[in-house]
Amino acid sequence: MSERCPADPEIIEGLPIPLAVAGHHQPAPFYLTADMFGGLPVQLAGGELSAMVGKPVAAPHTHPVDELYLLVSPNKGGARIEVLLDGRRHELVSPAVMRIPAGGEHCFLTLEAEVGSYCFGVLLGDSL
């Protein structure tokens, strides 16, 4: 019988994990969830944007925790999203990050995205 050594790595495969999130039209693809590794204070969802131009993934919705939108692309300026936050529109051009305050009503629309562009939602807490 082998015992687990505290220094052994923990590996989770089979990602992303689709989870239902209020306001989203389909389950969101999660790469980190609150129940991983004995409990995490952060969750990470998102995906590749090039096929999502002009297609909203969610209706305006809120979370009980802060969320960070992290927009990245292979080339500077290779992705643009329009974020609606509490009725105000903001445009992000990659690379960029935007904090969505807890309780803020938000959603985004991809305006432009070269292949390999991603938007990740980093939820700063264990609640969706």
Automatic annotation (TrEMBL):
<dbReference type="InterPro" id="IPR014710">
    <property type="entry name" value="RmlC-like_jellyroll"/>
</dbReference>
<dbReference type="InterPro" id="IPR011051">
    <property type="entry name" value="RmlC_Cupin_sf"/>
</dbReference>
<protein>
    <submittedName>
        <fullName>Cupin domain-containing protein</fullName>
    </submittedName>
</protein>
